[in-house]
Write a structure and sequence with these properties.
5-stranded antiparallel sheet, 41% helix, 2 domains, alpha+beta, 137 residues, 3 helices
């Protein structure tokens, strides 16, 4: 009798400990997720509620975010337009013929149709934010 009572109490205590650990884990996960979303521009979720403010940022100066530059480069001997916060080769936005997308050998995210594509190349947070806004609609 004593043994059954002890194991029953032990099971109850272990169950309570597991529940507390589970709730603590959920709290910590949610806290980290919220911090990540609010502090990283590339993780800003574009919604119908904030689309206008995000679009205002994305087209602030000559159709681009403030301080961004445009430049022309060549890909397979064809001129292409690139733009971004600076003229760096590792991270930029590019408009090109859809058939040329496979020629970009860096990490990329692209949207478009059978003729033209818009790609975010690299991992620059500002470029990823711009891509999220422009490709929302």
């Amino acid at each position: 009798m004593q043994n059954k009572l002890f194991s029953s109490k032990l099971n109850t205590v272990l169950l309570i400990i597991i529940i507390v650990l589970l709730l603590t884990g959920i709290y910590i996960f949610n806290k980290r997720t919220n911090t990540l979303v609010t502090n990283s521009p590339e993780n800003i979720l574009v919604t119908d509620n904030n689309y206008e403010s995000q679009m205002k940022w994305a087209t602030e100066e000559n159709g681009l975010p403030k301080g961004w530059v445009r430049w022309t480069d060549t890909m397979a001997e064809i001129p292409v337009e690139k733009y971004g916060p600076s003229q760096i080769r590792s991270s930029y936005m590019i408009k090109l013929n859809a058939k040329m997308v496979s020629g970009i050998d860096q990490e990329k995210k692209c949207v478009g149709d059978s003729e033209t594509a818009l790609c975010a190349v690299g991992n620059n947070p500002e470029i990823l934010r711009y891509f999220n806004v422009i490709s929302f609609r």
